[in-house]
Amino acid sequence: MANKEQVDNVVRTSSVSRRTNETDIQLTFGVDGTGISSLETDVPFLNHMLDLFTKHGKFDLDVIAKGDIEVDDHHTTEDIGICLGQTLLKALGDKRGIRRYASVFVPMDEALAQVIIDVSNRPHLEYRAEFPSKQVGSFEVELVHEFLWKFALEARITLHVIVHYGHNTHHMVEAIFKALGRALDEATSIDPRVQGVPSTKGVL
Length: 204
Known about the structure:
The protein is an alpha+beta fold.
C-alpha cells in the first residue's frame, strides 16, 4: 500500500480485522495514497462505490469481506462502514496539521451531490437524499445511509450529505461517494500553515 504524504514521518495508514457471526472483514486504509483499491466483498455495488471513493480521494484501500449475503447485504455493508471509520480514526492520530473542514459538490450527469465534513471528534450524520428507486440492481439504497452513519460514528466525524437533485438512483449514489472521497481528501490533507491541532480547544 503506497503512501505519499507523512506528518513528521508518521505514515497515516491503519488496518483492522472484524469477525462476527455475520461478517469476517480485513480492511486496510491509507489516507495518503494513490487512488488504488483492492476490493473483495460479496456486494458488487458497494465494491463499485468504494472504488470510486478511493480513486477520487486518492486513498489506498484494501478490503476482504465475507458476510451473510444469503440474508441480505445489510451486515456486510454496515460492518465495512464500521471498519473504514475505525481505520480512518486511527490513521489520523492526533490530527495535527489537518485542514479539518471541507465542502465538495460533485455532479454525475443529471445528479448533484454535496458532502461537507468536519473532522471534529463529534460523530454526526445529517443525510438529505430522496431516491427515485429503492434498489440499484440487488443493492438496497437505504444501505447508503447505514454505511455513512456507521462510518461517521466510528471515524468520529461530522458528516453532512445532501443530494440536491437527480432522477437516476445509480448516478445519485455515485455522486455521493465521489464527493465523499474528495471532501475527505481535502479535510484530512496537511496545511503547512496549521500549527498543531486546528481547534481553539487544543485537541480534537
